[in-house]
Write a structure and sequence with these properties.
Layout lengths: L2 E7 L5 H19 L7 E7 L4 E3 L6 E3 L4 E8 L4 H19 L6 E8 L5 E2 L2 E2 L19
Length: about 140
């Protein structure tokens, strides 16, 4: 948790671009939320125009009006301003790395209570209440 599903046109991104986007998403999310880096999951789904995607942290489906779409699912409890900053950062980095105009990328972040989610067999605490040992692997490699 969080899970970011990047819906992309078939064959549009290379493996290296996907890897770079995954790292960038981790940097954005953890840089703004202070969540442990090992929590962030990024998945790429290839789809055709007009796709519908189940909303894993809400109800119903997500319909995008752009070829590239980022569907985030996070723990609830963060201020709306922080959620907006995270989404803006994700979309900006995605656009830059993918080499597509910003008007071709959209997204949203849905939330669910922390108590609905498990990580490594433990129910997650509210954002900011994680024990210190969860940050042991927080350093950026490189």
């Amino acid at each position: 948790m969080p899970v970011y599903r990047c819906v992309i046109p078939e064959g549009s991104l290379t493996y290296d671009q996907r890897a770079e986007i995954a790292t960038a998403f981790t940097d954005v999310h953890c840089g703004l939320s202070a969540a442990p880096r090992n929590f962030v999951q990024v998945v790429f789904l290839e789809a055709t125009a007009g796709f519908e995607l189940p909303d894993t942290h809400g109800s119903g489906t997500i319909k995008a009006d752009t070829p590239y779409f980022v569907a985030g699912g996070n723990r609830g409890g963060r201020p709306p301003e922080l959620k907006a900053k995270i989404l803006a950062g994700l979309l900006k980095r995605f656009s830059a790395i993918a080499g597509v105009p910003t008007d071709q990328v959209s997204g949203r972040i849905s939330e669910a209570p922390a108590s609905w989610t498990m990580e490594a067999g433990k129910v997650l605490p509210e954002p900011g209440e994680e024990p210190a040992e969860w940050y042991e692997h927080a350093a950026v490699s490189g």
